[in-house]
Structure prediction request, 326 residues.
Amino acid sequence: MINNKKEKLHSKKCNIQTEPPIRNLSQQSRHETRSKNGRFSEGINPPCKQINVSLPAPLIDSLDEYGREHGTGRGKSLQRLLEGILEVKEMKMVDEVADKTKVRLELVKTSHPLYVEFRKKHYIPNRGVVGQQMQYLIFYGEKVVGVIGGASAVFKTEERDNYFGLSTEKDIKTRQLNSIINNNIFKLDFPARNLATIVLGMWRKQIAKDWEKLYGVEVAAFETFVVEERLWNGKTRNGACYRADNWKLVGLTKGYGKTNTRGRTHNNKLLKSQKLIYCLRLKNKEFCTEYTTCWNDPVKQKEITRKRKEMISDNLDLLLEEIKAS
Prediction:
């Protein structure tokens, strides 16, 4: 007699490290691993990414049994068992050299659907933007291929402060920081050669104009922070496009401890990790010494909101305003 009653299996969480397809390992024989000083050094291990999954306990036992028979861990065992069942998407390589005339930027709200979609794909989780900020869609031809943005500079980074020669007096330094834009996001999904550097240079010029127009302060410098990491395609994220745009690698952050800048506890590995600090000082531009933000000035806040609406070409907002006016 067949028992049709489904047996409920208790699930148990396990950690699995997944790797690139076996057939690609021969093409990825040389990769980089971290050395004691935090930077990458040559190694032979292919990049892999750890994931947390919940599986029924009997399935985990079977997976471990398979591993003992074949001399593989859980990740390698799953990889072998899934070969031929799941299709691995190969990365599309584009030999095209980027055409600068096809690139343009469009200032948008952080709530813009396309911005939100690209922001979700960025390797650093979205925790919102604090302070002043301007975000852009990246167009290549008629297609949106990424996002790039700028925000208020972080308050304390020793290597950056020394590189720019910022004041040690809190009030003066606070005003100086208004002249520095933090490149808070740069996500590009079109792999044409030199496109990242072209976009970065165009963005610097565009946001410097827009920043002064909106906030009334002249931009004197830029900063950004990059989590150095080996990627699935065998390359390394290490800020190459910034170096190509003449940014200077000035050091490594110390990384947060168990709390973030607001004193809240967290378990975010990206926050705890050290980051590469890139800086760019603009020629013939002085740091601001008089500007104050609009946080405690309702009149100034209202004026900035009005200016931002004028600068952002949001067709939906324009349509709604026309309807209200009619």
Notes: The two ends are 75 Å apart (CA to CA). Residues 1-9, 18-34, 40-46 have pLDDT under 50 and may be disordered. The longest strand covers residues 143-152. The CA atoms of residues 59 and 65 lie 10 Å apart.
